[in-house]
Amino acid sequence: MDTGRVIKEIEKISVKTDCIHILPGVEYECSVSAENIRDFASVLYKNNYMLLYLTAIHLEPYPAVVYQFVWPETKFRIRAVVFCGENKTVPTISDIYNGANWYEREVMEFFGIDFDGLEDKRTLILDESDKGLYPLLKKEGKALDAEATGFKTN
Amino acid sequence: MTFKNETESENLEKSGQHKFLLNMGPQHPSTHGVLRLVLEMDGEYVTGIDPVIGYGHRMHEKIAEVRPAQSFLPNTARMDYVCALPYNHGYVSLLEQMTGIEVPERAEYIRVITVELNRLASHLLWLGTFLLDLGAFTPILYCFDDREQILDILESVTGSRLTYSFHRVGGVYKDIDDNFIEKSRAFIKRLEKRFSVYDKLVTGNIIFRKRTEGVGIVTSDIARRYGITGPNLRGSGISYDVRKAFPYSIYSKFDFEVPVGKNGDCLDRYYVRINEMKQSLRILSQALDMIPEGDIRAKVPKKLKIPKGQSSFSVEAARGELCYYMVSDGTDVPYRLKARVPSYGNLSALAEICEGMLLADLVAVMGSFDLVIPEIDR
């Protein structure tokens, strides 16, 4: 399969922010809006990509969710960044990539980001009584904005 | 034998009482750590699995945010205590990639040698415990005998036996001497001979075949949906090894193959790991032959400022792809560090793979998955 075709498909629903050549592969970075992340994941799933992980970063004013995809048979990695809106909600991709379920639950309990459409919303790593603790959020006033951490917002 | 039992079981089925919940763990020998599985049972068959994790949670990712990046190094080894050196390697490589520090070639060779030795130790431990889970008591004694040799070799240079903190930003902590090389060469010879012992002891064993053949099949689609990596993925026929796909460090210099399976069952995962051990030996003997003289550590400032930005680095740990992802705000303390650990994705697929199988087969599948729970909990 051709990586160029995949890039053409995802360029319609995402904005390319960076493209780093790592030896001997390529790491392609793009920014996706929350509405498009489900379509984005579907395109990559159809093209045999694998979800490596997803995680979040506490940024001001709203946190960002980072998705890392890799296509096992090529040297191509895609990192997608979704900046959450005011309601701190991102649509789930756990029905496309089932493995995302655990990662989303982890992000939910560590960062307080809600995943719209996620069926299983129990805590995964923390105890049920620690709900609302959000340990990976920065202390008040310590969180930086996207520019200060090197993210390109457009 | 009377038919009393049969009618009783029929009665149970009619009243719906043949279904029950079974608690496996957190203290159970075949979960290899503090993992709890809540199993929905239908007689002897498992109809639903709900893994409960987090018993060994230490919040390494938060610890990384409150101290200088170099001070986090000992923590990386404590995620996966069975195969700690790839965790060292990935972390220092990430910092080197972000700060642009060049590593002396000899140091990279030492890193690869120690990492491959550690991978062998991890696979040997897996082989013993996997077979122990299946009820074979003998092989673990042989495996631990071999593994002990590696631990001794590694102890002589790293100073510890399990939670190594040996790699440093810009190089390694200590140089290896002729004694180390000699002992490693002797070990390679020894282990090469041992494979035939394992082969005679295990591979042809009828009980072993019956317990593993066609059990716990991981299709490539399941692997992709759950992010299964490492030997578990390669058992399904997908040849994805970070050492080959994204040759980091000096892996491109070595001649080695990536063993793959065909059916993705427990037996294929067994074959893949055994063949991987042989490939590790190949890498080891090449590295020991090719190792150049020179420095083992580049000059690195004590206060290591990481340039603003984000970066990720992947290495092949014994269980699959280990990926560190760091966001930095320009100071020496990372803003965010994410460790993507291989067992996490592997375990999350267990529920789908094992649905509808016998309880005993579940133990076989978990053994073949080579889970290390502290790595999942982090």
Structural write-up:
The mean pLDDT of chain A is 81. Chain A has three helices and nine strands, in the order αββαβββββαββ. With 154 residues, chain A is an alpha/beta fold. The longest helix of chain A is centred in the C-terminal third of the chain and has 12 residues, at 100-111. In chain A, the strands form three sheets. Chain A has a five-stranded mixed β-sheet with strand order 1-2-6-5-3. The longest helix of chain B is centred in the N-terminal third of the chain and has 29 residues, at 105-133. In chain B, the strands form three sheets. Chain B has a three-stranded antiparallel β-sheet with strand order 1-2-3. Chain B has a three-stranded antiparallel β-sheet with strand order 6-7-8. The model of chain B has no long low-confidence stretch (mean pLDDT 87). Chain B has 378 residues and is of the alpha+beta class. Chain B is built from 16 helices and eight strands.
Output the keywords.
heterodimer, A: 154 residues, alpha/beta, 5-stranded mixed beta sheet, two-stranded parallel sheet, 32% strand, B: 378 residues, alpha+beta, Cytochrome-c3 Hydrogenase, chain B, 3-stranded antiparallel beta sheet, 49% helix, globular
What share of the residues of chain B does DSSP label as strand, in percent? 5-15%
Mean pLDDT of chain B: 87
pLDDT average of chain A, as an integer? Answer: 81
Integer-rounded radius of gyration of chain B? 22 Å
Helix content of chain A: 10-25%
Secondary-structure blueprint of this entry?
The complex is a heterodimer of chains A (154) and B (378).
Chain A: H1 3-11, E1 14-22, E2 25-32, H2 37-46, E3 50-57, E4 59-60, E5 64-70, E6 76-83, E7 89-91, H3 100-111, E8 114-116, E9 144-145
Parallel strand pairs in A: 2-6, 4-9, 7-8
Antiparallel strand pairs in A: 1-2, 3-5, 5-6
Chain B: H1 4-14, E1 19-24, E2 36-42, E3 45-52, H2 60-63, H3 73-77, H4 85-99, H5 105-133, H6 138-158, E4 167-168, E5 171-172, H7 178-203, H8 206-212, H9 220-226, H10 231-234, H11 242-245, H12 266-290, E6 309-317, E7 320-328, E8 336-340, H13 342-348, H14 350-354, H15 359-369, H16 373-377
Antiparallel strand pairs in B: 1-2, 2-3, 4-5, 6-7, 7-8
Helix pairs in contact in B: 5-6, 5-12, 5-15, 6-7, 7-12, 12-15
